[in-house]
Amino acid sequence: METRQRILAAALRLFAERGFYGASMDQIARELDLTKQALIHHFGTKEKLYGAVLVAISERLMTEAIQPTEVESASAFADAVSRIYLRTLQHREDTLLLMRELLDNRRRAAQAGTWYLKPFLDGLADLLRRDPNWQEEDEASIFTHVYQVLGAINYFAVSTATLENMYSVEHVEDMQECFPERLRKLAMGGVDT
Amino acid sequence: METRQRILAAALRLFAERGFYGASMDQIARELDLTKQALIHHFGTKEKLYGAVLVAISERLMTEAIQPTEVESASAFADAVSRIYLRTLQHREDTLLLMRELLDNRRRAAQAGTWYLKPFLDGLADLLRRDPNWQEEDEASIFTHVYQVLGAINYFAVSTATLENMYSVEHVEDMQECFPERLRKLAMGGVDT
DNA sequence: ATCGTTCCCTACCACTTGGTAAGGAGAGAG
DNA sequence: CTCTCTCCTTACCAAGTGGTAGGGAACGAT
């Protein structure tokens, strides 16, 4: 029973790092001192294993990221965004894999895994919708703002390794330090003057 | 001579759509009614072909995205961002592949292709640095702001297909319509009140 | 002791991968 | 006509892919 969890963890790591096609069943199995047939025994096919990893990610996302009993205040959205930022950095592998899933979606469109994000997005939009400063805005504006802020977070979370190579580790640490403050301004800003 | 360009175009499409491991030489070749050995004849190996695609992308990015003779005004950065947004939507395949490259960077770290983005980022940061509203801010804040805005653009550009499936084509069209206006507020906002 | 179940292994398979070797069609040069 | 060079072909290969078949070890239940 515990083997399933170990497999899921290793699969997440490798799928996030190398993508669905870049990671092979054999590699994942070797990482755990198993054979790939152990994975097949537990999950049936590679696709199903990948699906199980996605389900695990979305469950984490749903239980941790959105607090349904969010206090209704002018900064409710900004607060939620701050929490999501911290969580995103903490679960960077989840973020990496979800980003890959976003890119691969054209082919995998009809499959499961994708719509797990929908309630998450809708929840955030709802938070913003109840913000007094956003009462005047239309639906498209609200949703676009949510997505822009989310994009800023995820893109950065996925870029740190590259940025460290491109500049320096210290440079990225500086960015990480002032990121929440700047992110808050992004999240709050945008209402008509 | 013209074959090289055709190969590069097809390779860009498939690499962007399916990733490096997801796209095979054979698929790319069949798309052009050639055999994979034609590609090998022109580019040597798959890695080199991929590298050539990256070089082509970065050249497009350098010549089109940053206008060195940008007018120095309070909105110079926001103007540049607007242009980059339009260009990003126009060259969505380039954006897709650069995003994939960002994700794969851990493995490909030492290789070329990555640092092409550096002058682009630095140029944008420089634009913001000369903005009178940003004179007080420190380097990390400036760069973080640049990266957040860029993240909002790229994440959205890469998400449209998924969003269309998750909601509707009309929903995404609405977002695209109000995106530039909201993006401008993101880019301008963020200075201390 | 024996049966059944869970969990994982070895052995094997068809297929695809990137890449090599060698040769041919076409064109221009002498 | 022939030599050469560019561009691309067919034929082939070793390695790796996901997946099947079947067996064996451990263990609890009867």
TrEMBL record, chains A, B:
Domain HTH tetR-type, residue spans: 1-61
* InterPro entries associated with the record: Homeodomain-like_sf (IPR009057), HTH-type_TetR-like_transc_reg (IPR050109), HTH_TetR (IPR001647)
Q: Which residues bind DNA?
A: 24-43
* One Pfam family from the record: TetR_N
Q: Which UniProt keywords apply?
A: DNA-binding
Q: Does the keyword Metal-binding apply?
A: no
Question: What PANTHER family does the database record attribute to this sequence?
Answer: HTH-TYPE TRANSCRIPTIONAL REGULATOR RUTR (PTHR30055), HTH-TYPE TRANSCRIPTIONAL REGULATOR UIDR (PTHR30055:SF223)
User: Could you identify this protein by its name?
Assistant: TetR/AcrR family transcriptional regulator
Q: Which organism is it from?
A: Spongiibacter thalassae
Q: What is the lineage of its organism?
A: Bacteria, Pseudomonadati, Pseudomonadota, Gammaproteobacteria, Cellvibrionales
